[in-house]
Design brief:
The protein is α+β, with helices and mostly antiparallel strands and about 260 residues long. It is about 45% helix and about 25% strand. It is built from 7 helices and 10 strands. It has helices spanning about 25-60, 70-100, 110-125, 145-160, 195, 210-215, 220-230; strands spanning about 5-15, 15-25, 105-110, 130-135, 140-145, 170-175, 180-185, 235-240, 245-250, 255-260. The chain has a 5-stranded mixed β-sheet, with helices on one face. A hairpin with a 2-residue loop joins strand 1 (about 5-15) and strand 2. The protein is globular and about 80 Å long. Bound molecules: adenosine-5'-diphosphate. Adenosine-5'-diphosphate (ADP) binds near residues 159, 160, 208, 218 and 246. It comes from Psychrobacter halodurans.
Length: about 260
């Protein structure tokens, strides 16, 4: 059997005609596959040692007669291993989403899913004290991957909480539009300068690394969001005014929308 080849086609105007350009991207495809597998393997291998370290650190930190300077050291090690664990888990999730070309689709009751995300967000919101509004304008649900969508959409809500100064206003909405159903999170937070917007979904791209770390971020959240939405044929839209707030939204096309009546 001939080895598989990957081709990319592009149609461009050429004088009065159209020119079809065919690129052979087989090598690029293989390199991309190697990168994906490497990241997935490294993350997987790091999981067990990390779990062991976290377990021992937890036991040691509880010792009552530990000298104070040791205690501080143990606290820092516990925080940093927890951070490493979050990064490894996010990397694993991202590789899994990238590798799975097809995934099982199920009916998702969006009212239930968004209420669940809203309740979790309220717990996280305690130290910020924002007013969070949940606005559900349609009973329509989605045909999709519930676990991945919960992770992606709640990521957007948690980001709105993290990147809005205390006492802000956040609205999470689910509405029917002419193009499908739209999910949106609007905040009146710190906003994003235009030059950063196009790069936000790159892995580890953060505008302010210190702020992201301080709030427990891994820098992988929006990369995960982009991939999960892509699996559902939805694109992440980012509108923002620096210092004035941001709206992260996505429209799910009709073939992924399911009315509750026919679920
Ligand atoms: P992180 O773990 O750093 O939050 P993300 O991938 O979720 O990683 O987001 C990437 C960067 O995008 C963040 O570090 C932050 O600079 C910016 N960002 C994301 N959401 C918002 C928001 N709602 N308002 C302002 N900036 C945001």
């Amino acid at each position: 059997r001939a080895p598989e080849r990957y081709l990319k086609c592009e149609l461009t105007p050429f004088a009065d005609e159209k020119l079809l350009i065919i690129y052979d991207v087989t090598r690029l495809h293989h390199l991309e596959e190697m990168r994906r597998d490497f990241v997935a393997n490294v993350s997987h291998e790091l999981r067990t040692p990390l779990t062991v370290m976290m377990g021992y650190l937890e036991n040691f930190s509880d010792q009552p007669d530990m000298p104070p300077h040791w205690k501080r050291g143990f606290e820092l090690m516990t925080q940093q291993t927890a951070r490493m664990n979050r990064i490894v888990n996010d990397l694993l999730l991202l590789s899994r989403i990238e590798i799975e070309e097809t995934h099982e689709l199920h009916y998702i009751d969006m009212t239930k899913l968004l209420t669940h995300i809203y309740d979790d967000a309220q717990a996280y919101n305690q130290e910020y004290g924002h007013s969070i509004h949940l606005q559900i304008d349609t009973y329509d649900g989605l045909y999709g991957s519930e676990m991945y969508l919960t992770s992606a959409l709640s990521n957007l809500v948690i980001n709105a909480i993290k990147y809005t100064p205390k006492g802000g206003d956040i609205t999470v909405s689910w509405t029917k539009t002419a193009e499908g159903c739209r999910f949106a999170v609007e905040d009146n937070g710190i906003g994003i300068a235009p030059q950063h917007i196009a790069r936000l979904t790159e892995r580890f791209y953060r505008i302010d690394k210190g702020r992201s770390r301080a709030t427990g971020g891994t820098g992988l959240g929006l990369a995960i969001v982009k991939h999960v939405l892509y699996q559902h044929e939805a694109n992440l839209q980012i509108e923002s005014v620096e210092g004035g707030g941001s709206t992260f939204s996505a429209v799910f096309p009709p073939n992924y929308v399911r009315s509750a009546a026919i679920s």
